[in-house]
Structures are given as C-alpha cells and as structure tokens.
Amino acid sequence: MIEAGSPAYYRATLALCLGSFIVFANLYITQPLFPLLRELFALSALQATWSLSLAMLTLGVSLLLYGPLSDALGRRRIMLLTLAGASALTLLIPLLDSYIGLLGLRMLQGLLLGGVPAIAIAYMGDEFEPPALLLAVGLYISANSLGGISGRLIGGGMTDLAGWQSAFYLVGGLSLLGVVLFAKLLPPSQQFQPRPLRLGSMVADLAAHLKNPLLLLAYLIGGLNFFIFSNQYSYITYVLSDSPFHLPPTWLGLLFLTYLTGTFSSALSGKLNLRYSPPLCMLGGILMLMLGTLLTLNQTLPGIIAGLLINSFGFFFCHSICSAWVNRHAERARASASSLYLLFYYLGASVGGFYLDPFWQAARWQGVVLGSLLVLLLTAALALRLYYRQQTLATATPRPV
C-alpha cells in the first residue's frame, strides 16, 4: 500500500491531480462564454448554458459505465484512454459553425471526461493507506477547482485576445501534453483485484449503494449542493455582463479565480476530516455556502466577489468530505459507489439551471438567491440527518471486549 509522504504517494497524487486538472479545464471552458454564445447564436440565457450542462449530463451518465468497468478491467488504462480522447475532441470543436454541432461534440466529450472522475478515488482506495487516502482526496478535489479556474480563464482571455476558437485550440493542445505526463507519472495498480463484469452484479452493486443510508444521504448532499453552486456561477455571468457592470469575457473568466478558496478548503478538508465528525464538517460547508449566497445580494462587484469567495470555500469543503465519506463507507465495489456519488453530483449541475431559471425570470439575481437558499436549507437538514444516523449506528455497534 502507498504510504503518505512516500515517493509513490507524490507521483500518484500528482498524476491524479493532473488528470483532474485536464478534465475540469476542458469541461468548464465554455462557462465564461455564455453571454457571447447567447449573442453569437441568438440563444436564450438558459440555452447558452447547455454547452456546459449537456456535457455535465453525459459525464454523469458515463460514470455508471466507467465505475463497474474499472472494477473488472482495471483503473489506469481507462483513465488514460478517456483523457486522451476528450482532449482530442477539444481540438475539433473550433472547426464547427453551428451551435447544434457544438452541443453534439460537447455531449460526446462529456462521455469521455467521466473516465477520471469515476475511477480516480477508487484507484486511491485500492492503492493508498487510509491516512494517505484522506489527504490525497483533498488534494485531488483541489485540482478540480484549479482545472476549472484555468479552463475558464483561458476561455475568457483567449476569446478576447484571438477569438473563441483559439481558447479551444490552446486547452486541447495543453491537455494532450498533460496526458503524456499522466501516463509517465501514475504507478501501475498493485492492490487491484478484478471482479467479473456482469450486468446483474453491476445493478446489484448500485442498488446496494442506494439502500445504504450512509451513502444515499451523502449522494443527495453533494448533488443538491452542486445543483445550486454551479448554476449560480452561470447566472452571475449574465448579471456581470449586463448593466451596470458590462464585463467582457476576460473579466468573466477572472471571476472564477474565486474558486481558489475552494482549492484551499479542499486541501484543508483532509486534515479536519480526521479530527471532527464528517457530517458536521459537511454542515459547516453548507452554512458557509448559504452565507456567501446572501452576501451576493450586495449588488456591487466587491460584494459579489466576496460572496463567491465564501461560496467556493464552503462548497468544495463539503464536496471533499462527501467524496471521502462515500469511499470509506462503501461496503463493496468502491468505484461504482464513487461513480454513483458523481452521477448525483453532475446530474444536479446539469438540471439546476432549469430549476433556477424561473426564479431568474421572476426576480433576476434576487430570485436566484431565494431559489438557492431553499435547496441549501434542505441539504443542511440532510447533513444533520446523516450525523444522527452515524451516531445511532456507532451506539448500536458493540465495542470489543
């Protein structure tokens, strides 16, 4: 098993963080371009978000395949092939001249981008000792936010500098270089034990995970939090591109630097997860997300940025705790358990815009805040439920004599 602080730990963690970075840079490249896409293709605000939400949708669905497939065939090869394919598709997107075609390639790209998120934490669960796992998961999640930030920064900055197509060329080229480094750094699996790929077993594993209340509650918390968090950023781009702000794509991309607080909180979560009750840590992250959301009602640029900084810290802190919780409490088939968590996570993001759009149409950003708080109150209640469920099970478990 890989120990924390060993050379193998640093190589494997760096490789998985790099894979995570590539995935999320490619996934989120279109988010600062929503106002531009709306004008370029004569779309509604909701339709422009489909360039991200449909990729998230297919990514989420693909997780049901990759998790069980990796339980049978191994982790490393699938991650490598899907990364390479998704990076190559990024280079093809600028060749399109229709929004329908762009959406089609983004959906296909989403199917490939699911390979690393579905498998990475299961790889850690196989190869890392438990303390190393908790620390590595926090670093891995922090790479999610760094990749998302970079994709958005390049998307906005290159669009202003040389057109939106140039952003895809740059991200695609850098991603392919990253895939080569990923292949060189990631150690082959040593502890992996293959399981036969049987449809009945796959369905049974997924059903068992959904029947486990310790997992189901974490699935709902992670999915509903991202349901709100991701789509808040989508709608705030419309607020800041319109009067009185009139921010161009470059500055909309810079807005996502607020994710850096999430990078910090993800890395911090591993240490706090060892000291405090994980469900209470989840609750703390949700309360911070609620606080940040309320602060954005101060419709000045500093007020909005302050709220988003707090939102990012709270969201990624809770997400990291949930991810590690699922891996630790899956009774079998850890890859499919993690995949099911991420299915809830990305399906939440892909449909959250449909939930928030009526609030946006009715009261603009104030409506988005109201719709957000209603869902976050629910996830806070679910975190408390998970805490009491954990306490009940701990009390019912007999202690060794």
- What kind of sheet is the major sheet? none
* Structure summary, number of beta strands: 0
CATH fold label: Growth Hormone, Chain: A
Helix content: over 70%
Low-confidence stretches: none
User: Helical segment tally?
Assistant: 16
CATH superfamily: MFS general substrate transporter like domains
Strand content: under 5%
From the coordinates shown, what is the CATH architecture?
Answer: Up-down Bundle
SS-derived structural category? mainly alpha
Radius of gyration: 20 Å
CATH class: Mainly Alpha
- The helix-strand sequence is HHHHHHHHHHHHHHHH
Average pLDDT score: 88
Structural domain count: 1
End-to-end separation in angstroms reads 29 Å
Overall body shape: globular
